[in-house]
Specification:
Blueprint (H helix, E strand, L loop, with lengths): L2 E4 L2 E6 L2 E6 L4 E4 L2 H10 L4 E2 H8 L5 H13 L3 E4 L25 E5 L33 H14 L5 E7 L7 H17 L3 E8 L6 H9 L3 E5 L4 H7 L9 H14 L6 E6 L6 H12 L3 E6 L12 H23 L7 H11 L14 E4 L4 E3 L11 E4 L3 E2 L1 H10 L14 H4 L4 H8 L10 H21 L25
Parallel strand pairs: 7-8, 7-13, 8-9, 9-10, 10-11, 11-12
Antiparallel strand pairs: 1-5, 1-6, 2-3, 3-4, 13-14, 14-15, 15-16
Length: 496
């Protein structure tokens, strides 16, 4: 007799109610009392329908159980299975489909320089874990105006039918080549308009070169800005130092305050690199959000080999998760009251949950996002710009479609044995390629060192999402459609 089993799902509780996160579809399914009882009963193992009805008979009418089973089956929360196997049904493979060829480009990250005026010890581009020599093979230190224009043409041509394209400027320290930004932005805006498109601009900077005329230009041209900053003075000055060893906080802080005062058309965000020595997340958030005045603050653990002194160990990840959870519950309180909260890590994940994100690949690198080196070489993303081993083509000659498709196929979630059965894979898909390459020597490796952290954080965000969905569902409308200015620039790349 065919039996009934739970499909691949992750139960959780929020707002006093039971939910299921349906892994193959990435849907969040709220359970009523009957459905919750069905799920709880089936968590003990497969059951034939008569046995299931029998167990639930003391509490629920058979017709109510039947209706719940039909609803759960429609959502694929329960599945019919052969009674012979003891193991649960295998997870459904994510479809390995590239629907459009050539693959449309939505975001181009242009490394306008490979030089920096800071000497951050943990920097993935210049530190001990760098994957390419910035000026090897005659790679120019600054991108030329000609190459920047060629990058714009490449972006527009590769964007397909999309009405909006995103151009992000990066480095090194991006503003070391401000002269090219000044010329490229009006050129890109004009060329996009001629192609019937709109272009959105953003950049990442360490803030040291935010002179008044630069701030004025960024504000006048509606350029989204992300500032790489690690918190209060003693934390910022731990790693983010000039080449002579001087700390950068006293230079950066007043410039950032001027930027925030003048540039009000776009949310200005801070991006913090967490290390073993800079891990007081709550204090960093308070300082950057409440004292300095950033609209939002996002955190990311340092990308580094495990043996480095600044690498975060297991206890560090535990501490990070605990502090993230505290801020996430502050976010929840604000969301329930309809107020903005600037913890972007939880906002980003809640938005992905609301939109049903289900990733076969961890990010858009090599897909809808690519990075350009100063000489015009096109790489998977900005983190691989200048690396011959991760080159996909050039802005002058285009992308090698065969290499691009081979990369995407090789990195599909179903190629990662450890990830294929993980309930959190729709939001993770194995993690950052660059992190994997730095840690394990290959972009194809899943980032197993932070699996427990990812699962713990995803569980927290599911709970936050469930609470908001039950208690203030109107808040979630801001994630529908094109979003609101509060959401900032989701396509901005991770910073140094």
């Amino acid at each position: 007799m065919t039996q009934i089993a739970l499909g691949e799902c992750h139960p959780f509780e929020a707002a006093g109610r039971q939910f299921l996160y349906l892994v193959p579809s990435a849907a969040v399914f709220a359970l009523d009392d009957t459905s919750a009882a069905v799920v709880e009963t089936l968590r003990g193992g497969h059951l034939a329908a008569p046995d299931l009805y029998s167990r639930l008979a003391p509490r629920f009418d058979a017709r109510v159980v039947e209706a719940s089973l039909a609803e759960l089956a429609g959502a694929r929360a329960i599945l019919p299975v052969d009674p012979a196997p003891v193991a649960a049904p295998p997870p459904e493979p994510a479809p390995n489909i590239i629907p459009l060829k050539p693959i449309p480009l939505s975001t181009l990250v242009v490394n306008v320089t490979n030089r920096c005026n800071l000497s951050c010890a943990y920097c993935y581009e210049y530190g001990e874990d760098k994957i390419a020599e910035p000026t090897a093979g005659g790679m120019p230190k600054l991108m030329s105006e000609e190459t920047a224009r060629e990058s714009v043409e490449f972006m527009i041509e590769r964007s397909g039918n999309s009405p909006v394209v995103r151009l992000t400027f990066f480095g090194g320290e991006t503003l070391l080549n401000f002269a090219v930004l000044e010329k490229t932005i009006p050129y890109a805006r004009r060329r996009a308009a001629e192609a019937g498109k709109r272009v959105e601009f953003s950049l990442t900077t360490n803030g040291t070169l935010l002179r008044p005329e630069v701030i004025e230009f960024l504000a006048d041209n509606d350029v989204g800005v992300t500032i790489s900053i690690d918190g209060p003075k003693e934390m910022q000055d731990k790693f983010r130092v000039f080449h002579d060893g001087r700390g950068s906080y006293d230079v950066v802080a007043p410039k950032v305050r001027e930027l925030l005062k003048r540039h009000t058309s776009r949310p200005i965000g801070a991006r913090v690199t967490l290390t073993s020595d800079v891990l007081d997340i709550t204090r960093i958030y308070r300082h950057l959000r409440e004292e300095v005045g950033f609209w939002e603050v996002g955190f990311a653990p340092v990308t580094t080999s495990p043996g480095r002194a600044h690498a975060i160990g297991e206890t560090g990840f535990d501490s990070m998760l605990g502090q993230f959870r505290e801020l996430a519950h502050e976010f929840l309180e604000a969301a329930l009251a309809g107020r903005h909260h600037g913890f972007s890590n939880v906002r980003d994940t809640v938005e992905e949950l609301h939109k049903g994100a289900s990733k076969a690949l961890p990010c858009g690198a090599g897909l809808g996002l690519m990075g350009v080196a100063t000489n015009g070489d096109v790489a998977l993303c900005h983190r691989f710009a200048g690396s011959d081993a991760h080159k996909l083509g050039t802005v002058q000659d285009g992308v090698d479609e065969t290499s691009q498709e081979a990369f995407l196929d090789a990195h599909h979630i179903d190629r990662k044995t450890d990830c294929r059965t993980c309930w959190a894979r729709p939001l993770c898909a194995g993690g950052c390629y660059h992190e994997a390459y730095t840690r394990y020597g290959t972009t194809q490796a899943p980032n197993l060192h932070y699996c427990e952290w990812i699962r713990g954080w995803t569980e927290t965000c599911l709970e936050i999402y469930g609470e908001i969905a039950e208690r203030n569902p109107a808040y979630l409308r801001r994630f529908d459609g094109g979003g609101t200015p509060e959401e900032g620039n989701d396509d901005a790349p991770e910073t140094h």
